[in-house]
Each structure stands twice: as structure tokens, then as C-alpha cells.
Amino acid sequence: MTEHEGSPFATMYKRPTERGLFHRVTPSSAEVLAEFARQLWRANFCETMARRHLRAALHVVVWAERNGIALRTLSADEAKAFVEHATRCRCRCVIAGSSAGWPKRRRRRARAALRVFRGFLHTGAVGTWPGDPPVLSPLVSDFQAWLVAHRGVTPGTARQYGRWAGVAISSVGEDPSTYTPRMIRRFVTACWRSQTPASIEAIVRVLRHFIAFLSTRGLCDVDLEGALPRLRINRPAPPPFVLTTKDFKRTLKTADGRLRDRAMLLLMFRLGLRGSDIAGLRLDDVNWQNGTILVSGKNRREELLPLPQDVGDTLLAYLRDERPRTESAHVFLRERAPHTPVGRSAIIQMRRGAMERAGVRLPDTRAHLTRHSVATDVLRTSVPLSALQHLLRHRLISTTGTYCHVGQAVLRSVCQRWPK
Fold first, then answer.
1. Residue 97 confidence (pLDDT) above 60
2. Known catalytic residue at 150
3. Residue of 51, 55, 371, 372 with catalytic role
């Protein structure tokens, strides 16, 4: 019996190749792997996912020892080097087992598994690790903090704005006192040649916020904002692809037995909530006694909406019977460990998957499809546009108008037959 064979962690490796590799690692690395296994069990990982992450960790350990890399201080560059190694590696101890398949899929799985193991190495626990912090200039970091504190944007939006602010700084210079209208216009013109009109509009919006931030700090000329062009991009009206009531029912039927998915679909179909609205819901936002729900939308604007009976019943059943028992205050959590809050993109993908299983196929499956559908369905019941504006939580009623589409049946009733 070898030094590591008496450890209960050794039983996690079933393949002879994996067991042989585990017996060759140093005692300190074996202890790291054993503690990683214990953390996976404490985080309620299922056996399949735990074995997958343990195989990935063993692969990282063997690769690090062969290349003389310290495991505890694995840097971002070394992690990238391992991902490239895992993409080309032909050994049996790979990230997703011998069925890893194509290099593109191997690279994606290597990054996902490495993120969990690196999070354990840096924090000592298994959970959501944000990764290596981006290298930002002090000016961009202050700009992002200013956006969150004074403009009410979310941290995700602040990161996107900061990314474009960093591009602008690298183009026009790091000293804001030297900025001139000509330099700003030259940067916008250079972006115009390589970006779409919608992206140009977003870049100009970011620059307005960035110049306003610099002006409040006294770092640039106050009149510099006038150098930005006034853009008016005429977008074509979106096609009237909306879900009907039958589509709603068919999509909901695919979520039978999955209370979490059914509750999220009902919040989208009945209240028109965005994916980010659902992802940000917390337990304290639901007032069961008054039958209301507090939704925090864009710019951290909070709106109180009524909670329909069927939505409340499904949500209560999910919280009572299906939601994992964790300390998280978010309503919707991941089904698999670690039980972290569900993200916006996962909610949109869940809705698209439910539509595909229900056989609901539309040419356009944009993220706001359900909001457009709810607006069109409510408008058919002769509800005033101002009430619909409150339901969709729009500041301007003109924004609500873009969400309302006339159904094809209504168009057929008013259109005349084309003469032959």
C-alpha cells in the first residue's frame, strides 16, 4: 500500500490510469486534492460533477508538477498555458473524461473546470469565484465607481462602460487635461469605420458619461461634451413575432415537474419581467400578505407589481419543496452545487429551451420576446397604454409603444384584398 492509498479520496478514482497518476503526485499535492474533494462534498456536488472536477484537478496537479509550477500560486498566464495543454493533451486524465471530443469543447470545459479549482486554491472553498481582477487604470476604476454611485447603473453595466472608456483612454491619451474636441471626434470617427451603428451610439453614450465624470472632477474642459456628435440612428421596427396564448400554455407544459423553471416562465409571461429582473429577485421582495412583488429594474428603479395567484402558488411551491436550503437571499438558485443565484443568460436559455421542446418556433427569439408578447396581449384587452407603461416599468410612454405590435388577425380584418 502506498502513502496515499489509505486515503478515502483514493476511491474517487476508478480508472487505473487515474489511480496511477494520483499515486505519483507529491504528498502535499495529494493533501490539496483531498481537501478539494472534501469541499466538493460539503458544497453538495453530485457524484458525477464531483468526479469530473476531481479528474480536472488531478490533471492540473500532474501538469504543474511536471513543469515545476507552484500549485497554490497558479497565475492567470499559467492557467492559460494549462488550457492550451488540455486542448492538445491525449492522456486519459482529461478535463471531461475520454469523451471530451473536439478541441473547442475541450477548451471550454477546461476553462470551466479550472475556474472551480483555482477558486478553491485562492479562497479555500468551492463556490463562485470571479476570477482574476481585470487590470484597470485608476481613472477607469474611479469612473466605474462613479457610475454605480451617481448614475445608478448596475456593476455589469459599469464594467461595460469602463471597457469602452479604457479603449478611449488608450486612443486619446491618459491625461484628460489635454483632451480637445478634435481628439474626441477623431476617436469616434475611427470607431465608425469598424463598429455597427448601434455600437457607435453606445460608444457616444459612454463618452458622454465619461466626460461628465471628468468634468465633475475638474480634470477636463466642461464644454468638451459638445464635441460629441448628435447621432440619430433610424432603426427599422422589429417584426411582429409574438407568442400567442396557445404558445404560452404549450411552453408552460414543458416545465411540469420543474417548479423553478415554471415559476420563472410565469414571471416572464404574466408580469413581463426581464431576465435580469428575475435573476435579481430576493426573498424579501415578495410580500405574501399583500400579494405584491418588488422588482428592481434598470438604474436600480424599484416598482411594486401585483403578484397573480398562479404565479404566487408556483413560487411558494418552489420555495417550499424544490429550492436548495442555503443562506443565499436570492429566490432562484442553481439546481446543481454550488447553489449560487441563477444568472440572466441562464434564464433566457431556459426559456428558449422550453419553447423548442414545446415546438414553438419563431424567426426571432430575442431576449425581450416575452415582454413584446405580454405588451401585445395586454393591449388587445383595451387596457390604456399608461397602465401598460406601469406594468413594463418604462419611463417614457414612447418606449412602451415600441413593444406593442398589431396581430396578424387584426391586420386581416382591416386590410383590403389586393386587386388582381
1. no
2. no
3. 371
Catalytic residue among 108, 250, 298, 352: 298
Q: What are phi and psi of 174, to 5 degrees?
A: -95, -5
Query: pTM (2 decimals)?
Result: 0.68
pLDDT value for 381 = 76
d(CA 16, CA 20): 6
Partner residues linked to 292 by β-bridges: 287, 306
Best CA proximity match to 175, nearest among 207, 216, 220, 213: 220
Q: Is 394 a catalytic residue?
A: yes
pLDDT tens track for 111-157: 777 888 888 888 777 765 555 566 678 888 899 999 988 887 888 88
Residue 21 DSSP symbol: H
Could you report the per-residue pLDDT of 274-286, keeping only the tens digit for each? 888 899 899 999 9
Tell me which DSSP letter residue 330 carries: B
The β-bridge partners of 330 are 282
Contact of 236 with 364, CB cutoff 8 Å:
no
Cβ pair 376, 254 in contact under 8 A? no
Distance CA 178, CA 170 (A): 13
Catalytic residue among 323, 393, 403, 405: 403
Identify whether 371 is a catalytic site residue.
Answer: yes
pLDDT at residue 318 tops 90 = yes
Q: Is 390 a catalytic residue?
A: no
Burial 363-374, CB ≥16 within 10 A → b, else e? eeeeebbbbbbb
Predicted confidence (pLDDT) per residue in 3-33, tens digit: 444 434 446 666 777 777 777 888 888 888 8
DSSP 134: P
- Which residues, 6+ apart, have CB-to-CB distance to 283 below 8 Å? 319, 329, 330, 331
Q: Is 298 a catalytic residue?
A: yes
Q: Counting every residue, how long is the chain?
A: 420
Active-site position among 19, 51, 274, 351:
274
